[in-house]
Amino acid sequence: MNILVTGGCGFIGSNFILYWLKRYPNDFVINLDKLTYAGNPQNLSSEENNSHYKFVKGDITDDRLVDELISKVDTVVHFAAESHVDRSISGPSVFVQTNVLGTEILLEKAVKHKVKRFHHISTDEVFGALKTSDTSKFSERTNYNPRSPYSASKAGSDHLVRAFYHTYGLPTTITNCSNNFGPFQHPEKLIPLAITNLLEGKKVPVYGKGNQIRDWLYVEDHCRAIETVLQKGEAGQTYCVGGLTEDILNLEVIKLIIKLLGKSEEEIEFVKDRPGHDEKYSIDWSKIKNELGWKPLHSFEEWLKITVEWYKEHQEWWKKIKNEEWKRYYQRQYDQ
Ligand code: NAD
Ligand code: DAU
After folding, report:
1. Per residue in 288-330, pLDDT tens?
2. Could you tell me which CATH class the domain 190-213+245-279+299-324 is placed in?
3. Active-site option among 33, 47, 150, 311
């Protein structure tokens, strides 16, 4: 397979490329990434001399570049996006630019060059929010109801992908997954933020009362799900992908991390809530399990322990990210 991966220097994209090249060393992977604040080519330093891997620094909204790169591949796996909800609240415009327009440009070129598969990585946030007391889950049949600029832009991109399948017959697939965690995740997101703050002797900022619920998915389980959909998924279909957590509150997640690091619960700091904060996400992943045979492996606690160890062992990696620019972001976001 010749694959164009977009956003391959980000958290999930770099995990996916490492996973793929290990399992399919004869395939070719081109990684197109703009290297925004979230992109880190160091994640893929092990592949620098791999003749089956090529990194191209560029923007998915660059029509000419996208045209040239897609002409060389048979498969597109599209991760590139602005991905942080808080940043979409303070600056929504770039979310529309990258997530909506960028996806449209990729789709157009994929039609032109007749790619065999266009796989789009999306989110469960397009479905809106459940109540904490709800026992129902999001599934492929749930209506779209995005509530943040981030999720609205992802919903827009999903609609375009579906439209290109129906209108132009482009063989597309979509995965809508829940909150990922694991190695190489930017410390702006809750789990790595908590781990790295605690390792630095800083407090963990918890929005509101910390009583929101997320469905946690280990990134390697997600990579296996994408592999499964690429190999067995049906064009035009959407698959929901989630983890093994049972309704765990954000506050409980933080307490587990505190325990794993041998710290005190006094390190929790309740801060101003996120505007429009979605209460709960929960995913019904029975379609991908029953139709394609995928399921998540291992418990949340097991994967969390592995993740905490990874951040303990890779302090150089995240300390470089927590630079002066980060400190300014942190002040804007939390010191209010
Ligand atoms: P990330 O923010 O860690 O990485 C995004 C990558 O995209 C970065 O390397 C960045 O440089 C690149 N990028 C951004 N704008 C670009 C542009 N215009 N052109 C080219 N490259 C660009 O994101 P992530 O957490 O790895 O998420 C990857 C995808 O998965 C996104 O589409 C996101 O919406 C989706 N998703 C993420 C999660 C999660 O929990 N992280 C859950 C569900 C879905
Ligand atoms: O559900 C999938 C989505 O998960 C992805 O589409 C997004 O790209 C990804 O960023 C993630 O969105 P969330 O907003 O759920 O993730 P985040 O890590 O930002 O927050 C997780 C929960 O923790 C959420 O309820 C907000 C809360 N939180 C977050 C931060 C950064 C805090 O309480 N304090 C914080 O400092």
Report:
1. 999 999 999 989 999 999 999 999 999 999 999 999 999 999 9
2. alpha beta
3. 150
Domain ranges of the chain: 2-181+216-241, 190-213+245-279+299-324
In short, whether 250's Cβ falls inside 6 Å of ligand 2 is yes
**pLDDT, tens digit, 9 for 90 and up, residues 86-96:** 999 999 999 99
Residue 27 is a catalytic residue: no
Q: Which residue has the tokens 């996120």?
A: 274
309, two tokens: 């160890």
The predicted-structure confidence for 109-146, as pLDDT tens digits, reads as follows 999 999 999 999 999 999 999 999 999 999 999 999 99
Q: Tell me the average pLDDT across 60-65.
A: 98
Taking the whole predicted model, whether its pTM rises above 0.70 is answered as: yes
Given a cut of 90, whether residue 284 has pLDDT beyond it is yes
Neighbours of 78 (CB within 10 A): 26
Superfamily of domain 2-181+216-241: NAD(P)-binding Rossmann-like Domain (3.40.50.720)
The amino acid sitting at 202 is K
CB 214 less than 6 A from any atom of ligand 2: yes
Alpha carbons 42 and 31: distance in angstroms, whole number: 13
DSSP state, residue 202: -
CA 165 to CA 258: how far, in whole Å?
46
The pLDDT of residue 335 is 85
243: Cβ below 6 Å to ligand 2? no
125 is a catalytic site residue: yes
**Catalytic site includes residue 284:** no
Q: Report pLDDT for 78.
A: 99
Q: For ligand 1, say whether the CB of 38 is within 6 Å of any of its atoms.
A: yes
Crossing angle of the two packed helices 219-232 and 11-23, in degrees rounded to 10: 60
